[in-house]
Amino acid sequence: MAKSTKKAQYPKNLAIKKQLQYGDVRLLARKTKYAASSIYMIVNGHRPMPDDLAKAIVAIVTERQAVRRTLASLAMNDEPE
């Protein structure tokens, strides 16, 4: 099957897609009522982003940022003197 040549109708979704990591679509599918295939269509810019899916993405991204900050602060405190 050939790659789709349709242009993204919702280019803002493509910017959101860059923040997602491998496996996030399945995680979002479990947290929301959407199928993984529908989420792929949304983040590739072919469908509009529903509010509940956007909230779930924001929750994942902020959780990861908090974990990174915590790990960074622990690494700074554990340095040998």
Give a written overview of the molecule.
With 81 residues, the protein is mainly α. The protein has one domain (11-76). It is built from four helices and no strands. The radius of gyration is 17 Å and the shape is elongated. The termini are far apart.
List keywords for this structure.
81 residues, mainly alpha, 4 helices, elongated
Provide a quick synopsis of the model.
The chain is mostly helical and 81 residues long. 62% of the residues lie in helices and 0% in strands. The chain has one domain.
* Low-pLDDT residue spans: none
Biggest beta sheet attributes: none
What is the residue-mean pLDDT, rounded to a whole number?
A: 87
H and E string: HHHH
Q: If you compute it from the alpha carbons, what radius of gyration comes out, rounded to the nearest whole angstrom?
A: 17 Å
Helical percent range? Answer: 55-70%
Helical run tally: 4
The count of β-strands is: 0
Cα(first) to Cα(last) distance is 59 Å
The total domain count is 1
Q: Structural class of the secondary structure composition?
A: mainly alpha
Task: Give the topology.
Elements: H1 11-17, H2 24-31, H3 36-43, H4 51-77
